[in-house]
Amino acid sequence: MVNTKVNLGGLEMATPVATASGTFGYGTEYIGAVDYAKLGAVTAKGIRLEPWPGNAMPRHCEVPGGLVNAIGLQGTGVEQFLSITVPWYREESAATAGRSVPLIANIWGGSVDEYAEVARRLGDAVDAIELNVSCPNVKSGGHTFGQDPAVLAQVVRATRDATRLPLIVKLAPNVPSIAPYVAACEDAGADALSLINTIPAMVIDIERRVPVLANRSGGLSGQGIHPVAVKLVHDAHRATRLPILAMGGVFDARDAIEFLLAGATAVAVGTATFSDPGVVAAVHDGIVDYCIRHGFSSVTELTGNLAE
Ligand SMILES: Cc1cc2nc3c(=O)[nH]c(=O)nc-3n(C[C@H](O)[C@H](O)[C@H](O)COP(=O)(O)O)c2cc1C
């Protein structure tokens, strides 16, 4: 019998497998298609204070080994999330899983104050908050919050002061070294890190000589980014004691186990769910099977357990 429980910075997860924000709707859309009993947490699509329309279409494009998307954070605002989405999720997910499956709210904003206000309004309606810092800081000329350790620290600190929930900060992959960003999050009061978000990317229609996406560029996700994500998780783990939720091209249990050995406490399945929702259960079962084959009684023994 393998103990699959993990603790992600105060978030108790019955299994180490979560879903990645933006790839699993608001958590109810996959009922009937995914075995929720095998999920340790569901991360909802990103929300800000007000509803947000996202970018013009076309806003996604398949490429070899991945998907480039520029959805532009389309989402319901925090009020609809609280009044409709959360109660609906709680009822439906508990009924299908036979237990409560923790819900992580993924939040973003155009200013530090907006992040803090969304966190404040969420109260204790969700089980954890994940900050998406890969969005433009409107007040400081549009640079993303996650691209400057000092700004990152500000947003984490302000959100920390606004919530007692486990606070997960989702790091951007396109930085020269992850260590200063990890340190900024740790010092500012984060409970956990998640990585990676999508990698900036662009696709061109050579016949029309125009970018395929209306937004011109987007973010790459899927199998092609997995080795990049493993390296960043490994580097982040060496730089911190904070637990890590790893994502980026998890398509099977092997990908997930790589993340755990690199230093992750839990993993999230994202783009893979679009082509096969069954990946979630297969990843869970494959991790358990690996533990049995290698004599580990608890999934926690895998974290950072590289033979060096
Ligand atoms: C269509 C789409 C929408 C996404 N929306 C969000 C979002 O709202 N907030 C966020 O933090 N990440 C978002 N992401 C990033 C994913 O959560 C994840 O970090 C990334 O896709 C890497 O994992 P994957 O390769 O398994 O998809 C989105 C990704 C995709 C493909």
CATH topology category name: TIM Barrel
In the sheet with the most strands, the strands line up as 3-16-15-10-9-8-7-4
**How many distinct helices?**
8
CATH class placement: Alpha Beta
The helix-and-strand class reads alpha/beta
Strand-residue proportion? 15-25%
Q: What is the count of distinct domains?
A: 1
| Radius of gyration based on Cα positions | 18 Å
Mean pLDDT: 97
Report the uncertain regions.
none
Which architecture does the CATH hierarchy give at level 2? Alpha-Beta Barrel
Question: Any overview of this molecule?
Answer:
With 308 residues, the protein is α/β, with parallel strands linked by helices. The protein contains 8 helices and 16 strands. The strands form 4 sheets. An 8-stranded parallel sheet has the order 3-16-15-10-9-8-7-4. Strands 5-6-14-11 form a 4-stranded antiparallel sheet, with no helix packed on it. Strand 7, helix 2 (112-122) and strand 8 form a beta-alpha-beta unit. The protein is globular, with a radius of gyration of 18 Å. The relative contact order is 0.17. Bound molecules: flavin mononucleotide. Residues 20-23, 45-46, 67, 69, 71, 73, 106, 132, 170, 197-198, 221-222, 225, 247-250, 270-271 line the site of flavin mononucleotide (FMN).
Pick out its properties.
single chain, 308 residues, alpha/beta, TIM Barrel, 16 strands, 32% helix, binds flavin mononucleotide
